[in-house]
Design brief:
Layout: H1 8-27, H2 39-44, H3 51-62, H4 65-78, H5 85-110, H6 115-123, H7 126-163, H8 168-189, H9 191-219, H10 222-242, H11 258-272, H12 276-283, H13 288-296, H14 299-309, H15 311-314, H16 319-328, H17 334-342, H18 345-382, H19 388-412, H20 415-429, H21 433-436, H22 447-468, E1 479-482, E2 485-488, H23 489-510, H24 522-525
Helix pairs in contact: 1-8, 1-9, 1-18, 3-9, 3-12, 3-13, 4-7, 5-11, 5-13, 5-14, 6-7, 7-18, 7-19, 7-20, 8-9, 8-18, 8-19, 9-18, 10-16, 12-18, 16-17, 18-19, 22-23
Membrane topology: Multi-pass membrane protein
GO cellular component, one term: plasma membrane
Protein name: Na+/proline symporter
């Protein structure tokens, strides 16, 4: 039975555009040619991306398949609280402007490829650098897995629309084939492939977002109709998705959730540019000023994210699309259902492909970031005689393996648990803030104290997660109840981390243990 406007035309457009996407990925190895046997050429695009490509590349990290799925789904299922994503990205870009140009400068001067390279020399500590690297690797795995979950939602709606059933075997085969293509062009083209395919992906996503947000309100009574329908149907939606019989607060934020809203937005903003893929993309810039320019116009994506969040309300204006979400009891199909029931068949194929490759491009960047960390900051610490060619080859192999580990993670771990684990990943990555961000601005932190702070932050984060969720393994919330109200656990753990790092450094200083660093201050502030 056909679903909405999905037909063979939709599938044909999807396949043709995916073929163009794959071609760009492979052709990228010829674009701005460099010696891809060197890790900075393969993993950082030779540090030759201009401001526009940096903008597209970093935007590719923000507008992902999971973003397309999770933010509207969160709005639909939980209401106004999920609008925290809007201030979070705005603050995140402000933090990026304060930190990434300095990290780019010192990385250029010293030949660094990862943030852990910087941490190692700044604190003269191999242990702290390895800790930062492994934290990034652990946090990145469920992040990639969630991109795949977003891709699954698109494929499922496409298959249901075409055949009436979403065969798990067909879904799995399609995902494996897509990841084989991704792995091959990432291996051969590195970050160049991610950059070029990111341009295509972002153009298609902007077309999708702007078209739907303009056309659907005009054709279906606007947001007035959507909010009016929400008043009468949100209880049904809440029960179908959350098994709770009460209205969902769309038009206001409950006062009890205000501390949770702001702490989650702040914690997420602090974590955003600590992820390996965000740092990797920033270090690929041609120069510091182009990085600043590309980053300064990223808030445009924040506007797009705000529009995207509204899809979770707009679906109420389209009863047939809302009925599918309720029938499947799955908020993840919010955007695919909205597109399928409102747009012409060819546009459905274009929009679904945009969301699908919106998972593949970030997955490529994330896998490259993880490979760089593991080779440069873990393997190389135990095998110091790695030559540049071997280093690059290992990074390519690890990048490939990591993609399929993430894919296997999705096949083995239920989607619900993958989403829960990603909450823990965001909390963990924020514990690398003192050595990475503060290390860019001060040399007063002691390496041992900062390592102890990292350990305290990680352990307290895990303990708070366990306490907040009754038992480990069933993570339903990333908030912890305090006298001030529910607070995002990342903020609490980071406060403990900072207290240990700062107090420990002060004690070490009084005891005469002066911080040691291999970096001169001018190497951070100006290009040598």
């Amino acid at each position: 039975m056909a679903l909405g406007n999905i037909d063979t035309v939709s599938v044909a457009v999807f396949v043709v555009l995916f073929a163009i996407f794959a071609f760009l990925g492979f052709w990228a190895s010829r674009w701005r040619k460099g010696d891809l046997s060197k890790i900075d050429e393969w993993g950082l695009g030779g540090r030759r991306l201009g401001w526009l490509l940096v903008w597209f590349l970093m935007g590719a990290d923000l507008f992902t398949a999971y973003t397309f799925i999770a933010v509207p789904s969160g709005m639909l299922a939980n209401g106004a609280f999920y609008f925290f994503a809007v201030p979070y990205v705005a603050w995140g870009f402000a933090i990026a402007l304060l930190t990434m140009p300095r990290l780019w400068t010192v990385s250029k001067n010293k030949g660094y490829v990862t943030a852990s390279d910087f941490v190692k020399d700044r604190f003269n500590s191999k242990s702290l650098a390895i800790a930062v690297a492994l934290t990034g690797v652990v946090a990145e795995l469920p992040y990639i897995a969630l991109q795949i979950i977003g891709m699954q939602a698109v494929l499922a709606v496409l298959l249901v629309g075409l055949t009436g059933v979403a065969s798990k075997t067909v879904l799995d085969v399609a995902l494996v084939l897509a990841f084989i293509v991704l792995a091959l062009f990432t291996f051969t083209s590195g970050l160049r492939g991610a950059a070029l395919t990111g341009v295509m992906k972002d153009i298609l996503i902007w077309i999708t977002v702007l078209t739907v947000i303009v056309y659907v309100p005009l054709a279906y009574g606007g947001f007035a109709a959507a909010f009016n329908n929400a008043l009468h149907n949100s209880v049904t939606v809440n029960y179908a998705i959350n098994h709770v019989k009460k209205p969902i607060p769309y038009s206001f934020l409950p006062p009890t959730l205000i501390p949770a809203y702001f702490s989650t937005a702040l914690g997420s903003a602090l974590a955003l540019y600590l992820y390996p893929h965000a740092i990797n993309g920033s270090l690929s810039s041609e120069d510091k000023n182009k990085l600043k320019l590309g980053t300064s116009i990223l808030p445009v994506y924040g506007v797009g994210l705000a529009l995207l969040a509204l899809f979770g309300i707009l679906i109420y204006a389209v009863p047939s699309a809302l009925a599918l979400v309720v029938k499947l009891a799955n908020g993840a199909v919010t955007v695919p259902a909205l597109v399928a029931f409102t747009m012409p068949d060819w546009f459905v194929g274009l929009a679904f492909l945009a969301i699908f490759i919106g998972g593949l491009v970030p997955a490529a960047i994330m896998a490259i970031g993880v490979a760089n960390l593991l080779v440069r900051n873990v393997i190389k610490e135990f095998k110091k005689d790695l030559d540049p060619r071997t280093e690059s080859t290992l990074a390519k192999i690890i990048s490939t393996i990591f993609k399929f580990v993430a894919l296997g993670f999705v096949f083995v771990v239920p989607a619900t648990y993958a989403i829960q684990l990603q909450l823990l990943g965001g909390i963990l990555i924020s514990q690398t803030l003192p050595p990475v961000f503060l290390g860019l601005y001060t040399k007063r932190l002691n390496g041992y104290a900062t390592f102890a702070g990292w350990g305290a932050g990680i352990l307290s984060a895990i303990a708070l997660i366990v306490e907040a969720n009754a038992k480990f393994g069933v993570i339903k919330t990333s908030l912890f109840s305090t006298p001030l109200g529910p607070i995002y656990i990342a903020i609490i753990a980071l406060a403990i981390n900072l207290a240990v790092s700062v107090v420990g450094s002060a004690i070490a200083s009084m005891a005469g243990w002066r911080p040691e660093t291999k970096i001169k201050e001018e190497e951070i502030t100006k290009e040598m």
